[in-house]
Amino acid sequence: MAKGFNSRGMGGLGGGMNMNMIKQAQKMQQDMMKMQQELQEKEYTAAAGGGVVTAVVNGKHELKNLEIDPEAVDPDDVEMLQDLIVAAVNEAMRSADNDASSSMQKLTGGLGLPF
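Now predict its structure.
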């Protein structure tokens, strides 16, 4: 037999430990895929301008809903409304990103794995 090999595989006792690590990695991968699916379906809401503009996005960064209070519509100040929309959408996106990051960190135990 070649050096370092025996009838139970490479290195003898290490084979069982490697199998256990592979199973753990596969389970973590399945858990990550499930969590990613759940995160993509979640919705995140944020408001701007004291609530006159509200944006709802999902975990895929798709804008699902945008509500604008009529008092926010001033034909002489369209730029303010545009800024409020951008602020609300960006804050909702940040919430989605923070939730995804936090959830993945809990799942991976801070291993720093990409998702």
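The longest strand covers residues 43-48.
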